[in-house]
Every structure is written in C-alpha cells, then in structure tokens.
Q: What sequence folds into this?
C-alpha cells in the first residue's frame, strides 16, 4: 500500500506538491518511486527555468525504466535538490522529504488548489 | 500463469509483474540493486520455472534435432549440454536454448518462457514424433553467485563442486512434502539407465545467466516449494537472497548475454546477434544457407556492446547515430581504419541518419555506468568507435565496447 501523506497536493502523474509560504516544493510520490524501483540517475531542471504545467521538467532513471518528472503548475525553478546528483537513492529512501526534486515559485499560487487532494490521489491509485 | 512458487514470492513481498503471461517477481523487498550485488558477491536464488522443458526421444528424432540446431549437439557425451540457436528457414533465431544430452538417443531442451509454444510447434513440425513437452510438470531454480557451491554442497554433498560448466548430474529425492525435502547426496552420472521422466530425480546443471558460477536445478513441480525453502534455510548464512527478473536482466546485460524477444525478435540471425560462435558450419541445419550467404556478403548488421558516458540510460528502441563533428575528413580514416569490410562512405560520417538501434539498455550496477546492446551497421562495430545514442530528445555519447562489459 503506497504512502500518501496528508497535507500535500498530488498530480495524476504521481508528483507531490507542498506549499511553503509563497513557494512550492515538489517531488515524486511513494507509488511512483515504488513503480520505478531503484533510482540510479536524476536529471534536474536548472534554477531559473520557467516551467509549464504538464511539461517535462526533469527525468528519473531507474534500473527498470526512464520516467519524466512533470511540472505540476506554471512557475520558475528557484532551488533544486543537488544531493540527488550523487545520491539518487534518496528518492527511494525518503521521497517526501530528503528526496525532494525542486522548489518552484508559482506564477499563481492559487493553481495549487486545482491539484488532487490526498483522498482523490488515493482513489486514483485504487 | 503462475509457477509453483507464486505464493512463496508473495510471502517474500515480491513485486509481481506479467512476464509473457507469467506472473513473476521483478524484485523482492530488497530491491534490484542489492539483489544484483548479492549475486556478484554472495549468492542469489531465482525462480525460472517459467522456462520450458521439452524431451526429444529416439535415434531418428535426435538426428532431426541436430538439423534444427546451429550448434553441433551430435558430438557431446551424455551428461553434457550445449547452448544453441534454433533458426527458421529465413535464418532468423526462433529461440536460444540449452540442449542437454540425457541419453544415447534422448535430448532435453530448455526453451525460453515466451518461446515454449513456438519451439514445441517447430519441433513437432520437423521431428515427426517423440517430442514431449514437459513444461507444465517441471520447475527450475537457479542458484548463482560465488557462494553457490558452498550452499549447494550442504544439500547435495561435495560432489556437486565437480559437475562443471555445461555438464549436469542427477540426485535422488528420498522423500518430499510441502515442508521438507530429503535428497540423497550420492551423485548420479547421467546414463541410459536413468529415465529422466519416470525416476524421481533432480537435475543439477552447471549453467546460468549471470556470469557467476552457479547451478540450475530442474525439478518436478512438487519439489519446488520444499527445495526453495530448504535453500533459504541453508543459504541464509552465506548471504543467499531471492532475485527477481529486474536483477536477472542487469546481471545478464553486464555479460552481454542475449534476451530472447528483446535482443532478437524473430528477424535476426545468429551472425546479426554477436553469436557466430554458436554456429558450427560443418553440419547441416535449417537456416544455414542464409547464414552462409550473410557470411560471404558481409552486409549484415552486428550486435555490439556500447558503454555510455555521463548520466542517462539508453533504452530499447533508442536510435544510434554515427559520430559527428569530424571536421577534417582525414580524421575519419583514423576513426575507421581501412578494413577488408571497407571504411564507411564519407556521406555516412556527416549525416545523422540512424545506423542502428538499441536492443537492450540499462544501468550496470557493477560498473556504475549505463550500458547497452545495439544492432548497428557493421562499419561502426569496431571496439572503440564513438557513437551517439538518441533517446527521444536526449542524446548520449557512447563507445563500442568489447563484450562482456564486466570483465571477470
């Protein structure tokens, strides 16, 4: 059973979003990391990148497959998790905390409300 | 379909996936990387019961079987096995398989799971009778890794250490139930006196798909669960863990071993699959005329290993492009020394038309680099040739690398 913590928002493409003031932190969900299996490379966006909803902003490679990371909402990348360059396994070990991927300054923070609640995301996984 | 070990996989928290119609573990709770390293450094146990077992009986049948195999199965002694390709009339590989000589006029063939029906039909078509598909009655466990002989000798006795590569022996089952199995430690050498089908024996074969030393155990279905559990009990102290299909794939890819249905898909010959060594030219076999022509014309593609530079994995289907940016054409001659096969036309060097396709690609846990098998224009197949791999919008640099990737 996949872990879907309360207090986060989710996308249909298995990313999580956490609101931190006027910024959002994003990563991939427990379900996504479990389906990928062991992660071996992460291709991160660059700070300053403009990102567009549902457009690929990064790539996660595992010993099973390659998976795109999609931008949940429009905005600009303000910080990336450089630890993933050398320790991509953080995504498997701690996808909701140490395995975060990027911090985004949303074009409109209100867009976050349109994302899935934990309950809706759980329904999607069922 | 499920193997007899399906519930054991569930108990071990396996992630089960559909593999050619079989529900098989892709990994257990330890994960693919740790499973891979366990086989390279200690030992792992694989359920490969989805693979087939087909027995071919009779003198005429044995001679017919020889005509279906690229390798020469007629010269091996009872108790030995040989890796061979089975080709169709067009010279394309139907399957790669191991053939065991179990009697003067009896062979056991172990086809890949997805090929059992195809191979069974092919045998029925070309060998009139005496072909017996036992796949539903037999299971197979592979124990692989440097500790495998230590573990197996505790169950089968020290004699198991002497079986050797591509040889096999039998062991009598004394008693078995769902909880336990008792095996006679006296090694039985294969001979005409043993009836593979009737006698209650375990076949222990010095074969595997990992590049490590190890054994494959062919057993009747009722022995699968007790033997699997006994191996855990005996092997845990030596680091034996269960291994899923994920690590099976990374282990075989590091060795450059072909995966049926992936590296050959019904339209490629042995010569186009880096397997000329599997072809013995001094006997007749179906598809030989096509291979002879390919050998003479030297136009066929070749399967090569490519090691990638940097981060990123080229997956099956990724396109291979020739090297670019060779500003000085004289450099091109250094890149591709004149060979009997000729150097590539200049136009190739400067174009970015694909020259091949990745058939298998993954991250190598042992080398910590991405590796791939690719079928490419033979002009570029020389070790050391730099190529570009295009995966969607991404491009990676790669270098043609002599197989196996993992030198041992």
A:
């Amino acid at each position: 059973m996949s872990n879907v913590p309360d207090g986060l928002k989710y996308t249909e493409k298995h990313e999580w979003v956490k609101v931190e003031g006027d910024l959002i932190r994003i990563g991939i969900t427990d379900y996504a990391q479990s389906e990928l299996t062991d992660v071996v490379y992460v291709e991160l966006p660059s700070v300053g990148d403009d990102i567009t909803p549902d457009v690929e902003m990064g790539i996660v490679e595992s010993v099973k497959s390659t998976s795109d990371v999609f931008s949940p909402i429009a905005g600009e990348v303000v910080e990336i998790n450089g630890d993933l360059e050398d320790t991509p396994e953080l995504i498997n070990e701690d996808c909701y905390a140490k395995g975060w991927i990027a911090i985004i300054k949303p074009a409109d923070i209100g867009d976050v409300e349109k994302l899935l609640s934990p309950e809706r995301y759980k329904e999607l996984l069922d | 379909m499920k193997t007899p070990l399906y519930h054991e996989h569930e108990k071990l928290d396996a992630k089960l996936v559909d593999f050619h119609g079989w529900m098989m573990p892709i990994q257990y709770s330890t994960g693919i990387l740790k499973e891979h390293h366990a086989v390279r450094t200690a030992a792992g146990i694989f359920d490969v019961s989805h693979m087939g077992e087909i027995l071919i009986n009779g003198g005429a049948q044995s001679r017919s079987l020889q005509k279906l195999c690229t390798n020469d199965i007629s010269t091996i002694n009872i108790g030995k096995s040989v890796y061979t390709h089975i080709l169709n009339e067009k010279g394309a590989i139907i399957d790669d398989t191991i053939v065991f000589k179990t009697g003067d006029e009896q062979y056991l063939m172990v086809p890949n799971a997805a090929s059992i029906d195809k191979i069974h039909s092919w045998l029925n078509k070309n060998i009139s009778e005496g072909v017996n598909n036992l796949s539903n009655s037999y299971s197979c466990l592979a124990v692989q890794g440097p500790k495998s002989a230590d573990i197996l000798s505790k169950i089968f006795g020290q004699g198991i250490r002497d079986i050797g590569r591509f040889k096999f022996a039998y062991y009598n089952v004394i008693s078995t139930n769902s909880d336990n199995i008792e095996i006679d430690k006296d090694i039985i050498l294969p001979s005409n006196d043993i009836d593979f089908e009737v006698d209650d024996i375990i076949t222990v074969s010095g074969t595997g798909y990992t590049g490590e030393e190890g054994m494959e155990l062919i057993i009747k279905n009722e022995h699968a669960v007790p033997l699997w559990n006994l191996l855990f009990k005996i092997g845990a102290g030596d680091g034996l863990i269960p291994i899923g299909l994920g690590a099976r794939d990374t282990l075989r890819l590091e060795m450059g071993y072909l995966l049926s249905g992936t590296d050959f898909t019904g339209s490629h010959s042995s010569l186009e699959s880096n397997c000329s060594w599997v072809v013995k030219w001094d006997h007749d076999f179906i598809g030989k005329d096509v291979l002879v022509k390919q050998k003479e014309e030297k136009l066929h593609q070749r399967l090569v290993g490519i090691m990638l530079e940097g981060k990123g994995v080229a997956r099956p289907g990724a396109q291979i492009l020739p090297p670019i940016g060779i500003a000085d054409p004289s450099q091109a001659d250094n890149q591709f020394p004149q060979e009997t096969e000729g150097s590539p036309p200049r136009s190739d060097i400067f174009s970015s038309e694909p020259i091949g396709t990745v058939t298998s690609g993954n991250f190598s846990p042992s080398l910590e680099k991405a590796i791939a098998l690719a079928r490419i224009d033979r002009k570029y197949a020389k070790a050391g040739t730099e190529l570009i791999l295009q995966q969607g919008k991404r491009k990676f640099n790669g270098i043609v690398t002599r197989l196996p990737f993992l030198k041992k």
